[in-house]
């Protein structure tokens, strides 16, 4: 089982990791959601506390918008896969993560994904 954490703002991937105040945690097993997704409101924006939550929840994949290089390197060192610079609605992004087709920098739309301005 793989645990995925998405940083959110109004059901969209939060543009900045350090300013996120809401997260969604989803467990994935055999390319499907396992159990109930867990939505959490954070007491305030804090990149350090968010890193602590990611480690405490044993998250394997982080999906976020922009992230400071320091935090990205720390999480990668802790063996968390960081998919950053992602733009899209949480529901659409989750679908791409479940299918293992989400990549850093992707703009996820309901029916198609664009990368670098071109449709795929």
Main β-sheet description = 6 strands, mixed
Strand content: 25-35%
Helix-strand sequence: EEEEHEHEHEEE
Query: What structural category characterises the helix and strand content?
Result: alpha+beta
User: Using only CA atoms, what is the Rg?
Assistant: 13 Å
**How many E strands?**
9
Secondary structure tally, helices: 3
Provide mean pLDDT, rounded: 92
Residue share in helices?
10-25%
Low-confidence sequence ranges:
none
Distance from first to last alpha carbon = 29 Å
Give the overall shape: globular
Structure description:
The chain has three helices and nine strands; from the N terminus they run ββββαβαβαβββ. The strands form two sheets. Strands 1, 2, 3, 4, 5 and 6 form a six-stranded mixed β-sheet that branches. A three-stranded antiparallel β-sheet has the order 7-8-9. The chain is globular and about 30 Å long.
What structural keywords apply?
23% helix; 6-stranded mixed sheet; 3 helices; alpha+beta; 120 residues; single chain; 34% strand; 9 strands; globular; 3-stranded antiparallel sheet
Summarize the structure.
By secondary structure, this protein is α+β, with helices and mostly antiparallel strands.
């Amino acid at each position: 089982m793989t645990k995925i954490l998405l940083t959110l703002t109004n059901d969209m991937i939060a543009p900045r990791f350090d300013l996120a105040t809401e997260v969604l945690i989803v467990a994935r097993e055999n390319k499907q959601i396992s159990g109930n997704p867990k939505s959490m409101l954070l007491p305030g924006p804090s990149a350090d506390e968010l890193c602590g939550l990611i480690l405490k929840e044993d998250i394997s994949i982080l999906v976020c918008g922009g992230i400071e290089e320091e935090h990205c390197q720390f999480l990668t060192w802790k063996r968390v896969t960081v998919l950053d610079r992602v733009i899209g609605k949480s529901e659409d992004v989750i679908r791409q993560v479940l299918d293992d087709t989400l990549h850093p920098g992707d703009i996820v739309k309901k029916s198609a994904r664009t990368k670098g301005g071109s449709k795929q």
